[in-house]
Amino acid sequence: MLHSRPSMLAPARLPLLVMLVWVGVFTALRLGLALLVGTASVPLTLWPGIFAKGLMFDLAVAAIAAAPVFAYEAMLPNRWRHQAWHRVLRTVWLWFALLLMLFGAASEVTFWIEFSTRFNFIAVDYLIYTQEVIGNIRQSYPIPAIVLGLAALSALLTLFLRRPLRLVNEQTLSWRQRAVLWVAAVALPAASLLLTNVDQMQGLGNAYADELSGNGLFTLAAAMRRNELDYDKFYRTMPQDQADAILKAMDVERQPLSEAIHPPAGEDPADDPLPFKRRPKNVVLISVESLSAEFMDTYGSTKHLMPRLDALAREGMMFEHVYATGTRTVRGLESLSLGTPPVPGQAIVRRPNNEHLATLGEILKPQGVNSFFFYGGYGYFDNMNAYFDANGYKVVDRTDIPKASVVFENVWGVADEVLFGHAAKTLTAESASGKPFFAHIMTTSNHRPYTYPDGRIDIKSPGGRDGAVKYTDYAIGKFIDDARSQPWFKDTLFIIIADHCASVAGKSKLPVAGYHIPLIFYAPDMVEPSVYKSTVSQLDLAPTIVEMMGYSGDDHFFGRPFFETDENPNRAFISNYQELGYLRDDVLTVLMPKRKVLAYKVDPITLATTPTEVNERLMNEAIAYYQTASRAFKEGALKMEPAKTH
After folding, report:
1. Which of 137, 256, 424, 621 is the most exposed place for a label (fewest CB within 10 A)?
2. Radius of gyration of the chain from Cα atoms?
3. Is the Cα dihedral 480, 486, 488, 491 positive or negative?
4. How confident is the model at residue 4 (pLDDT cuts 50, 70, 90)?
């Protein structure tokens, strides 16, 4: 059978068709996400810019995705093109490629619903911890039905493309045509990488719009490349002497550890005044998964989801203006243990060379305090076990909890009540020695798939975010009730705080309200009912705990104790891996890659932000903090001195 020789562009029909389908799916996805957000958050006037910029990213990704198809067509022998087996193989391949593309789009929809962003650092982490992530997805969504539906849709698309696919099978190519295909296979992805970068997503003046204009696969690749950002390379800097002087003026001198833990004779940290009846012998720090301040009536909610925590806030010391440093559990754990501003890129908990840092565990250990880290899941997730074990804590995770006591568990861990029950038993045994203890308990139940034991609250499992929040409230209340009967209760301060908020979605890159978290001090024998009104950061809690317990070492943190006699600096730090925010005087100063600096006026009531001029003083303070913290970790200045701790 004779076949006519096609034009020079005809051999590119299949890869170009693949590109067209990819761009079509990406555009439909963008429209769907835009409809999810709505015109209240993204004005219609921005939509043309979103789709125009989005087309650029979609074409770049489609060109890279089509490159293997160009190369395959260039290499395929002419004699194979007319074989029946190859036609079937090509059809199956096209169907499977469409299925993967549609599955990726569906995955991005679920990611957007959870985080209101394109794929980013979180998605990179999810690719690493597949067991928890896949288990979470299986428990949260009807995966078999979704995959079956996507497979059927892929089959329909393949059927729709059967005619152009048949024409491709009938083509016979010359060496010139193959050369054109090879050039396209190399030139198109190269041009895409040269002409586009993830920073081009910015500029529409609305965080939702910027995210919508991107492409999830493109942002995922960028996140893999930018897993760590060198502060000095990407951000505004200043001479270190100037930074040190600024921090010193703000009472941040970070004494050498030999002086911080072993102060000069005559200085007794236990003499520092506190607004308590007496100092706590023990501290139990409960960091609650994804607990936004807005969930509590104490902070303005009307849903009545957390009656136990609201009662504890009324009976103890409630902090009005506390802000998380980041958007992930690892960032909260970094802040609560290390008391350092969030360095750009990955959290220190996940980085190499993070052992024997000046954490709460390492600072309290040589002073006779035993520190624990309790986690209801498998602590290898996010490197938690390795980090806390190497930094002065005794780690207790899911593997240490007797199976007989596990009344309920899901992919993320045992139910919070199980975790608290095991922690209470461990601390009761520990208290028998007479030594003081510090215990950090990290919860898991307030996390998708939002499942928990039935019969505890009036919302049946799975009860969505509201049900999970209410169950966690129940579990914390039960833990406090059970602890009342223990001999260590009267000497223990219970601290309840969030690791981060449930969502950081907003019109700006760093929506301040998305970082507002609750903080409660509860100890009926020590703490009078009161409200603390100054603005403080999550990272200030670590030095506060050291000072409250009457030990030395609080001067080695970047954070400052809440109750120092000097005026509180009234500032906080918030970040999202790349944008580094500094909140002070109702102004949010944001340090960005490419040495950009932006500023926003913050409404003190609603926490809404509006662009404003950069204040040089606040900008220099932000640079001093973030630059010094980043360099301190990089240069090993956050390390303990092993000879003094072991």
Report:
1. 256
2. 28
3. positive
4. very low
